[in-house]
Write a structure and sequence with these properties.
flat, mainly beta, 26% strand, two-stranded antiparallel sheet
Length: 68
């Protein structure tokens, strides 16, 4: 298995810690974070399911009013 997790692949992750994010560093509504250490086990899950890639469409901030 590669040392880098790849988008659209499935993984089983065990022994990861979960802890609160200090308020000073909280992005938007996230309040907890995973802590991956040397004890964390990550296994790729083999699957025959094809996952279609997500296609992003970006808009300028000034154009957002038309989507409201």
């Amino acid at each position: 298995m590669s040392q880098i997790l790849q988008i659209y692949k499935r993984y089983k992750i065990s022994n990861a810690g979960v802890r609160p994010i200090p308020p000073k560093f909280q992005p938007s509504e996230l309040t907890i974070q995973w802590v991956i250490s040397t004890r964390t086990v990550i296994e790729e899950i083999a699957t025959d399911d094809e996952v279609m890639p997500v296609k992003f469409c970006y808009s300028k901030f000034t154009d957002l009013v038309q989507y409201m």
